[in-house]
Amino acid sequence: MKKVLIVEDDISISELLEIHLKDMELEVVKVHNGNAGLSRALNEEFNLIVLDIMLPGLNGLEICKQIRKQENYTPVLMLTSKSEEIDKILGLEIGADDYLTKPFSIRELTARIKAIFRRIDSLKKGSNGNTILTAGELSIDPAKRRATLKGVRIDLTQKEFDLLLVMANNPGRTYTREELLNTVWGYQYNGYEHTVNSHINRLRAKIEDDLDNPKYIKTSWGVGYWFNDEIQQVLK
Length: 236
Description:
There is one protein chain. About 40% of the residues lie in helices and about 20% in strands. The protein has helices at about 10-25, 35-45, 60-70, 85-95, 105-125, 160-170, 175-185, 195-205; strands spanning about 5, 25-30, 50, 75-80, 100, 135, 140, 145-150, 150-155, 175, 215-220, 225, 235. The chain is elongated and about 55 Å long. Helix 6 (about 160-170) crosses helix 8 (about 195-205) and helix 7 crosses helix 8. By secondary structure, it is of the alpha/beta class. The protein has two domains: about 5-125, Rossmann fold; about 135-235, Winged helix-like DNA-binding domain superfamily/Winged helix DNA-binding domain (Arc Repressor Mutant, subunit A), CATH 1.10.10.10. The protein has eight helices and 13 strands.
């Protein structure tokens, strides 16, 4: 049974969430402040974290940031009463998987949760399992979610790693920005293709020796990006 952590200070909302998540046959753990939420998230295994932004103690954005710093890639669905675009962008940039603005319908919530689980399963199926992919001096380990360059580990965020893995698993295939956005973040972020660009730029800065002439991630101008299929590919 999948296990979900709800970090929400509004008791009525957290209880409503618990009822409907249990109807989805999910095990539910509830906490009502940010510090307790971060502690549970880092010390227990969960399949999903439903995380309110406005919390006593640590806020949801800081909790998400701390979770990702600890290489914890549990999917995060953020909740907020705010509707400003900046909050959505911030959540997306620090590694949240989805975002819902209160008030929301239970149907929309359950649809988003199912979509997150489908996307995570899809990424796992497309990752060649425990197979380590090596291309030139770059090595990608899907099981450990680690990448190394010239034998040195690269410090990648969750989304940077997912982008790299998706493209490296299909070298030579051009992905549009929309395709990468849908695959790595999900359909609900349509219209935020610029986020793909910023993540690709940061990823390149970590793996490319020459940003003006990238070796691994190439650009199809006006279309999107592709992983260089002319580099020797070795599967271990």
